[in-house]
Specification:
The chain is of the alpha/beta class. It is built from six helices and twelve strands. It has one domain: Rossmann fold, CATH 3.40.50. The longest helix has 20 residues.
């Protein structure tokens, strides 16, 4: 797996990461969502440098200009519901992308800390020979992303696989490295070293879905 730690080089991205982590600032759900969307735009721009392009003649009012334009067809797939703000940020950059949505969640048995990934809903176009971009803001254990990838493979074989995430754990990154294709590209804003006994990233930022859209029952 090819890992790009986007905030390794200082940029305005660091400000947005700091704000979504800050327990006081993150109380503003609109600001939280907006910051996630902004980070989706920044990371997508970096990812765009690795995609395939072709030369095309552009007709201007005064003549013709040859330019390199994106040649890949992208399918942008998000894990509901926490992935929606990040999805919208990425979609602002890749506005011709097709879209897929997957409902995946942790299902605990008998109130135990162990869990399985339950997938109840998939809406997707064909991903065959397209660039599949999986979007999930929090890469904790990595199990959700792997489960979603294998679910989507029923709809074709992607040309390339990219993952965009905001904060990840080292354990989650190691899990992806073990269970996804070796040429997978992981684009991540920042990462932490630890998971707690409930499988949440520490220090992390909390529950991204709740912070974006309110607490659920």
């Amino acid at each position: 797996m090819i890992i790009k730690h986007v905030s390794h080089q200082n940029s305005i991205l660091n400000k947005f990461i700091a704000e979504i982590r800050d327990k006081e600032i993150q109380k503003d759900s609109l600001r939280f969502r907006t910051n996630i969307e902004r980070m989706g735009e920044i990371i997508s721009y970096e990812m765009s440098k690795t995609l395939d392009y072709k030369e095309k003649e552009i007709i201007t009012p005064l003549g013709v200009k040859k330019m390199n334009v994106l040649d890949d067809q992208i399918v942008l797939a998000s894990i509901l519901r926490a992935g929606l703000p990040l999805h919208m940020g990425v979609l602002r950059i890749f506005d011709d992308a097709e879209n897929a949505f997957v409902s995946a969640y942790r299902k605990h048995d008998d109130n135990s800390l162990s869990f399985n990934i339950q997938i109840d809903y998939v809406a997707t176009p064909s991903i065959n020979n397209k660039v599949l971009v999986l979007v999930d803001p929090m890469l904790a254990t990595g199990q959700s992303l792997v489960a979603v990838y294998h679910k989507l493979k029923k709809f074709g074989t992607p040309k390339k696989l990219h993952i965009i995430s905001i904060i990840g754990s080292q354990q989650g990154i190691d899990f992806l490295h073990k269970h996804l294709p070796v040429d997978t590209h992981l684009w991540i804003a920042d990462f932490d070293k630890h998971l707690n006994d409930k499988g949440y990233i520490v220090p992390g930022l909390g529950d991204a879905g709740d912070l974006a859209y309110g607490k659920k029952l």
